[in-house]
């Protein structure tokens, strides 16, 4: 019986036989990695044979989440859908913007939520009044779930302002939203996920004019939504919100983002296509 041929050698022959060439001397990568990135393919002089690299680069899918820090439906979506999707996708596939502000205050009474779990929280009335007001040149806010939610919104907004980098602050926000108290666990979450951040600077932002100005900006972003938001979490994908996009994001955000990103690369179907996504998007 003929001796078995190593798989790596077969790959080497398949790649080089058409041109009867040899790998570039600087290629120090095993054959099975030659097509794993454009840089490696160039170094090993096999770029023309790596068909997966010929697909056009796509812009990341842009997702904006408008939410409230204490809304049960928002916390569920952020923790179970958004954070998980962000972990599984490569950085170039998804760009996320978080806007903690939410529904206008309509007076005392329970939050009205829709869907099992629940999935959406609405104001309990259609008679909305402003959630922010300017008193003697300073912004004051009312929140659907009370003063603690206003504090939670402010903490997360100031955290984003101080951290700057999404990969730094999003795990901290995940920690806050998945814990038993959004407003009391900042120090513990920072110690685990971002010990380099200065809690004192975040506190100064929350208690000062900077935090109020940042929350006012969140109010402006929320009030400028078109169509106007009717509930939270409110998901905007690539600048658009539709009932179909919202439903798909709630059912499987990972599947939605994968389909849209593959369409941007010229692969696969469009919105509503339920076929499996091509491999290669998921982080190991």
From TrEMBL:
InterPro entries: Interferon-induced_GILT (IPR004911). One of its GO terms (cellular component) is lysosome. GO terms for molecular function: oxidoreductase activity, acting on a sulfur group of donors, disulfide as acceptor. It is found in: Secreted; Lysosome. It holds the Pfam family GILT. Residues 1-23 form the signal peptide. GO terms for biological process: immune system process. It is an enzyme of class 1 (oxidoreductase). Dimer; disulfide-linked. Belongs to the GILT family. This is Gamma-interferon-inducible lysosomal thiol reductase.
